[in-house]
Amino acid sequence: MTTILSARAVRKVYRTGAQQVEALRGIDLDIAQGELVTVMGPSGNGKTTLLNCLSGLDDIDHGTVHIDGADIHRMSDAKRTAHRAARMGFIFQAFNLVPVLSARENVELPLLVNGVRPRQARQRAQAELARVGLAERSGHRPTELSGGEQQRVAIARALVSEPAIVWADEPTGNLDSQTAEAVLEVLHEAHRAGQTLVLVTHDRGIGASGTRLVQVRDGRIVYDGSPAVLLAEAGASDHRGPGTTVTGAPAGRAVHAPQGISA
Fold first, then answer.
1. Do the beta carbons of residue 95 and residue 154 sit within 8 Å?
2. Do residues 111 and 121 touch, judged by C-beta distance below 8 A?
């Protein structure tokens, strides 16, 4: 498989006055084209920071991140922004739609930024909204849409440019369970069509639904492999003490057993 993302020795340090907090501690990660990678871990342990640093939304203090072969953290801010617009899509828990624009206009935005002609952008946006089941709601503004509809607009916006990779940070966090299931199915449909996705979640069921699960704890990746293996080990860890070693991580790498499967 073609490698879309390759990160090596990534460190991120937050500084407040004399205090330093090392949020990421030497992250190594490869993501192949067509994977659906879910990222889990306790709150405040680096999941969102990992997403932000791998996507170039945040700077890093050490290491490299290559996407499509380009080292994004060696780019200027302007070039990195242009690269994100052309090759990445983003889905956020809070939707982040422009309130004065219609659903179709929100989906058009990344296309227009990338130089697509307005008429073609409008047609592609309408087609993407139809794909997520919102063809009849394309003229409505975000305040006229339900939470689930707003998130589907955000998904359409993320997918419309046919990006190399889509980053989703708690995309179902503000939704009820039934709506969350519908939104998750849209993401899985995109994955089945070949889209590469990285999805940060607190939901154990969503974490188990990917092709691969990465667990982050204290700024480190402590598990990277099959969701089924981690779920089985997490259940077994209830009958073992802390610090038990789990095998089954990729490349024979041993990791410490999670105390349950913390989100």
1. yes
2. yes
